């Protein structure tokens, strides 16, 4: 089966930051969450998939089309939305519709109008007078209204209230329900991902930490808590930690949990824990 | 015409600590044991179930795989999952395992507060009697 998305050895160097040798793949019919702290390279990765900037090394393949050589075909297959509005300020929804109909071969105007209604977007107002949430919804309406294989969403949930976010999760699950399309979306709101994502790809400081199924991610890591006295015996196996006078809290690989002293508490890690502690790393004991 | 797998009812608890795929598998197994799902009945498709329960496709896949391993459901290529020929032994074995677990807990609790074996057996006897009166 052809991957909907195959990223291999993707590298992009900036002054002071390198997205380094990122590889992952997404098969048809699944939702993948792209996570990582601010500045870790999520948006860069998504922009490279969209060929909105030039990569230094590596290859990106979208349902069989190379993102550079087959850019036109690849982009027909991608529904893209970011947290920055890409439409002209003075446009109204109708202008967006007309423009997209020119740009995409398979643009579905009826479906676009339906999303405008569903999302309660005002047809009479200019986009510059839209709220952040409305702009995001307009981008989503556009992304969902042409015949695509991959939904590529950069922070789609960031400006949205919990009601719309829940609706969006429904839309994403509906999008993959027939098993031939996939979703890649970056987000900080990991509770959304803990519900519906099948795979999690985690980038930290330009490097790939893992790309695997969500259940395995949550089983791979554990959170440990203990007193300052037991810190030294645990230090070696900590991936990252936070310390204060009461003790420490940190992240370990679950397979190392057997080595823990008895007075250290070990519990399940959330995606947030995994992201935060990878970012924090090990700092000297601060008492 | 009813929708495929219409008689399946599943409630997921996010705070129970039991993995979601296990909750799904256990509740479908229960429906089979109670006769709400019968031999040959179609289960909802893996993807539809994931959407309805708002969980990942991998989670529902894992739940169905578990049911298949226990012999409760059968996958038919391209058609989905169906309740297997009712193997009452498989269902019984599953329940026996659960009952054993409950009893083990009871024995452990009894030991903690110093209730002896005879007292515990007596307690069980009373409970069984009460249950049969209710029936």
UniProtKB/TrEMBL annotation, chain B:
Domain HTH gntR-type: 18-86
Record key words, sorted: DNA-binding, Transcription, Transcription regulation
InterPro entries given in the database record: Tscrpt_reg_HTH_GntR, WH-like_DNA-bd_sf, WH_DNA-bd_sf
Molecular function GO terms recorded: DNA binding; DNA-binding transcription factor activity
Domain of life where this protein originates: Bacteria
Name of the protein in question: HTH gntR-type domain-containing protein
Source species of the chain: [Clostridium] cellulosi
């Amino acid at each position: 089966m052809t991957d909907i998305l195959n990223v291999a050895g993707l590298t992009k160097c900036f002054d002071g930051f390198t997205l380094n040798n990122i590889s992952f793949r997404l098969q048809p019919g699944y939702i993948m969450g792209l996570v990582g702290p601010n500045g870790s390279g999520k948006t860069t990765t998504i922009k490279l998939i969209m060929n909105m900037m030039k990569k230094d090394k590596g290859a990106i393949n979208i349902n069989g089309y190379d993102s550079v050589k087959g850019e036109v075909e690849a982009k027909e297959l991608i529904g893209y939305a970011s947290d920055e509005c890409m439409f002209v300020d003075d446009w109204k929804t109708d202008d967006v519709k007309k423009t997209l109909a020119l740009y995409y071969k398979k643009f579905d105007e009826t479906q676009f109008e339906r999303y405008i209604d569903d999302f309660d977007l005002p047809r009479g107002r200019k986009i510059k007078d839209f709220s952040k949430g409305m702009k995001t919804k307009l981008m989503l309406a556009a992304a969902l209204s042409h015949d695509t294989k991959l939904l590529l969403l950069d922070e789609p949930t960031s400006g949205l209230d919990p009601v719309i976010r829940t609706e969006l999760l429904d839309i994403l699950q509906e999008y993959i329900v027939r098993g031939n399309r996939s979703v890649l979306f970056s987000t900080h709101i990991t509770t959304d991902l803990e519900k519906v994502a099948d795979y999690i790809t985690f980038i930290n400081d330009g490097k790939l930490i893992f790309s695997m199924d969500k259940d395995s991610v949550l089983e791979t890591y554990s959170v440990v808590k203990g007193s300052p006295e037991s810190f030294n015996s645990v230090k070696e196996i900590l991936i990252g930690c936070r310390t204060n006078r009461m003790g420490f809290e940190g992240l370990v690989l679950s397979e190392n949990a057997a080595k823990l002293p008895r007075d250290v508490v070990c519990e399940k890690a959330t995606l947030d824990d995994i992201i935060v502690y990878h970012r924090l790393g090990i700092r000297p004991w601060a008492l | 015409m009813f929708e495929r797998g219409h008689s399946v009812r599943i409630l997921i608890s996010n705070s129970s600590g039991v993995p979601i795929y296990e909750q799904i598998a256990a509740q479908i197994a229960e429906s089979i044991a109670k006769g709400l799902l019968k031999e040959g009945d179609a289960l909802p498709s893996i993807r539809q179930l994931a959407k309805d329960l708002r969980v990942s496709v991998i989670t529902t896949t894992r739940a169905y795989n578990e049911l298949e391993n226990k012999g409760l459901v059968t996958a038919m290529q391209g058609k989905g999952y169906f309740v297997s020929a009712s193997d009452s032994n498989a269902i019984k074995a599953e329940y026996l395992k659960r009952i054993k677990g409950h009893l083990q807990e009871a024995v452990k609790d009894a030991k903690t507060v110093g209730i002896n074996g005879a007292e515990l057996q007596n307690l069980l006897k009373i409970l069984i009697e009460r249950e049969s009166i209710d029936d």
